Amino acid sequence: MADIKKILENMTIREKIGQLSQYDANLFIDTDAAVTGHIEWLGLSDGDLSCVGHVLNFKSPAEMRQIQREHLEKDRNKIPMLFMMDVIHGFRTIYPIPLAMGCSFDPDMVKECSRMTAKEAVRGGVQVTFTPMVDYVRDARWGRVMESTGEDAYLNSVMGAAQVRAFQGDDLSDKENIASCVKHFAAYGGAEAGRDYNTVELSEHTLREHYLPAYKACLDAGAEMIMPSFNTLNGIPSTANSWLMKTILKDEWGFNGIVISDYSAVKELMDHGVAEDGKAAARLAFDNNCDIEMCSAMYFNHLEGLIEEGVFTLEQLDKAVLKVLDLKNRLGMFDDPYRGADKTDIELTPENRDIARRAAENCAVLLKNDGVLPFKKSVTKIAVIGPFADNHNIIGFWSCNGKNEESVTVAEGIKRLLPGAEVTVVRGCGDEWDDTDTSGFDKAVNAAKAADAVVLCLGEPQDYSGEGNSRLELELHKIQLELARAVIDANTNTAVVTFSGRPIVLTELEKAAPAILNMWFPGTEGGTAAANLLFGVANPSGKLSMTFPRATGQCPIYYNHTNIIKYGKSGAHKPYCASYIEHDNLPLYSFGHGLSYSEFVYEGLELSKDSMKADESIEISITVRNASDIAGKETVMLYMCDPVASNARPVQQLIGFKKIYFEPNERKTIKFTVTEPMLRFWNNNNEFVSEPGEFRLSTGYADHLILTKEFVLK
Ligand code: BGC
After folding, report:
1. Which residues pair with 133 in a beta bridge?
2. Domain boundaries along the sequence of the chain
3. What CATH code is assigned to 600-713?
4. Residue nearest to atom 5 of ligand 1 (CA)
């Protein structure tokens, strides 16, 4: 451990500002004119670079070691840099995208994947991950829904906290742990019209009830850092939003960890039009507790002047620097500035591949099954058709050191599982939204006709989701729908496997397809998992953590909406009814939907009593039976509704879930406890309260609630 106070005493103001600055790795390793130009454009000198505190976007552990070594040779204070990365869904071994992980409803599995990733990331030279991203999402047009666990605050909180605990462990000095930075605070997922970086306008009660809880849960779980979001929230960019950064984060939640801006977000305060120049931008960000500036150089260029002018004090600067040095110290950077980074790239291992495979099986959602699935392993002729039949680009947008070419495709997975079978692979058509080439259709149809079973692999390319990738239309591309119709006409023993980074519109496909298995972007072992699920080696158990709309125009669409008066629930459009002309209001697949090869029968929901006082609790018992000969997992969910309150309340709200394994024909009783804080909402006096009266508890899933029982809160 270093004496960081002593180090601080010896530092110049500029060196201190260096500790509050982070830049891309290429600034430190490339020497070509473009990079030199970039340094000049940032207004930085070589001297500044030698005291920078943090790096992102480095490519390999070797690069990390080189940058650190050269830095330590130059830095007068010998303060190691921190290397941060977007380790979002795996580092070397890529597991399913976070939206898929949400569908697992399995925090233990999330933990296992995050532990594996932390260990790999340490060896890859990472000490801080910009994870978890817990932005609450309701609009599938937004490409970054793939990074979120979905549209439920409670689920997001559980999953986010599980990741933080798994990444950080109990002791940051342990070289199997990394620090976690929760993001993007706040409400980045509320972007208008699902367009990335767009304006967010939200009422305080919606923010408090849906958008904020998961960030808070991650901080309560001990996240060391937080990143404000790019967007404006009710007119003010988060990095300059004193209500968010001071009132909520600091005063209410008591967060004393490190705040790091998003990429160039301090400079972007000028683009937002809330800072007239760089100095104003630096002033706004630093005043709102932003400790580290990522990628722009407003701090380097203006913070010293602002201190000289007395806008900020040296004590304020020192406080921020001490936080940074303290984190470096606790991570053990002063003792080992390479902190377990390998000398060469790390390799995939069978053990980690196995974790990724199990995760992909656990996250896949069986959306429809008329009975064709599982296919019999005894089939001898299989046609694997479609743009994702033999496509390695299924690992998802944020894949660090993962490599597409090392992922297992669906066709490869099936061939490995059934080495004796004759597997024909036909692409059929492309996956781009504007593809029109149908020349591969005949071959696809012929292969389908000749096969005993057809696996039709459709979806959107993996670079259609993730940062900056918003979509206007979520419908499965027309050419793929045409291919699907032709193939299913040729052979009805067809299962469709879908790949996407968001809910896509499958309304027309659903009419034609006997079965649909949604894999999301499943990661390195995606094809192995798909094969296992299709042929019954694994049993699907994922449940949607985000609603699938019937049409793009329904977005934003989510399960936990308030009572809509004159709600045209189904059927044709009715005048003076909250309905659409073309479709009913219900989604195609609701939050919580997901089939299994087992048959789970919900036999009863019992309450330990029918009323409770605020300091009491009620035990809920839900009895579920696996009425099949197939072992499987079921996520038992508990929903709450407060039918009459001073604010209109959601028609359904998830307050508990447990994913349970059932042997064939096994019956289990699953217990939940309901306490008063679970019944609270943000009222008109700006407080979280519960109101006495009747509450309803149900199980099942959104829009399909069953076994409802009431109790009274006295
Ligand atoms: C993204 C963040 C990410 C950062 C660093 C930004 O553009 O919004 O999520 O952590 O880049 O890569």
Report:
1. 183
2. 352-554, 600-713
3. 2.60.40.10
4. 263
